Amino acid sequence: MSTPPTYVYAFAEGSREMAGLLGGKGAGLAEMTRLGLPVPPGFTVTTEACKVYLATGEEPLALGIEEARALAGLERAMGRTLGAPDDPLLVSVRSGARFSMPGMMETILDIGLNDESVAGLAKASGQERFAWDSYRRLVQMFGRTVLGVDGDLFEQAIAAHKARRGTRDDHDLDARELALITEEFKVIIRRETGDDFPQDPVEQLQRAIRAVFDSWNGERARVYRHREHIPDDLGTAVNVQAMVFGNLGPDSGTGVAFTRDPATGARGMYGDYLPDAQGEDVVSGVRDAVPLSELKILDPRSYVELGDHLRTLENHYRDLCDVEFTVERGRLWILQTRVGKRTAEAAFRIAHDLREEKTITADEALARVDGAELTRLMFPRFDTTPADVPLALEGLSVVPLGQLQVPVDLPAHGDRHPQQGAHRRMSWREARCEGVGGDVVDPQGFGVVNQLPQEPSALRLPDLCQVGPLPLAEADRDARTGPCTARSRRRERRSGHRHVPLRCSRSGAAPRAVPVSG
User: Which residues are in the Pyruvate phosphate dikinase AMP/ATP-binding domain (predicted)?
Assistant: First the structure.
């Protein structure tokens, strides 16, 4: 008689060798737990559970029992209960396929908050604003991701509050305003779906897990898999992890770090840090991040500890590693690691340097580069010298090194299904991974680790230009500016891209960015 499959594993029960079952993220969390790194505890729902769900429309019969058992173990480890009204345990729910698919599937944070537990979180943390900000984020993410509500409806509601306050920064909204926004979000959900936002924390968790399963077959994920030759039948794992909070004040924050520069391959810590922010903020571009080196000034202890963990991971994986982390009131937590993506230039340099350091053999170094990467090194390069033209705005062009096609049309509502050769045109106040293969202008949120560009760059599509400040009309979000030069604030960015100077020339009502030279 065959042993029934196990559908849920605690992080401490897995390992990197189980990536096919736990997904790349789950295997990484398990491996870091085994290495003794500071990983918030949690559990992984396997890809096998996802396959059953996608094939039958129903979860495996044993899954609910295993999830309940794993949740009870997590509650014991944390000394708190999911959604408790006094001091609630909150969890994140994240996708994690066998092969990295950044930005392609769904994430829901702060699962466990409701109308009662938000007061308990405020009391336990001593910060009412933090509690309502977390609840607002949950209702917004859950409504968009799980319930299918148009995300722009939430954005319009919060934009109206910021306009009345005369600010563009969410941080300027106080606890009272965030509570009002949360109630407005719940009204939007009721109006759009006919149902109320669920108050039962366990129901929130179960529905979030199913939403992540469903996102495996979303448009973004399917297009990405087709381009990257990833089989459609692998399914995704789901990682449920105790929340740690980077938005508790100036002694907290969140960031992304690399063990080497993914653009050039140079040795040394590289990345972004965003003080007083939750995990999705640093990759969404909602606020300006600071270089990772700033953490050395803001929190020297966490910076040194992070450097130690990065060296541990690179030595263990023998490759460039990409790490997401959170600092909660001076305590460092590692939330994710994976072998990092890199440019062709960086791939050759990292392979060479690791060989010189005797970390890998010559044969392994050769196996880490291929002809396609060599071809990309031969593409023409952009001229990165400043143009002798008045600077009207600054921008981040997400263009792989050596690629020359940079279509950036600014009117917001472009054709989502353009004719052959036409450019899609979209403009968002924040970077969001909702389209595939379109041109995007993001008027706020500069940072070198914005996650949205990973989608087009992985598809070999030059797809994003961040510019700011850039006035957008509320009615049609039509970006308006005259002839100018748009130049990047920084030259290097995540996933191996450089910020290149772009010259904006006016064509009708919309400026178009074209290469300075090439």
Answer: 21-57, 70-287, 301-357
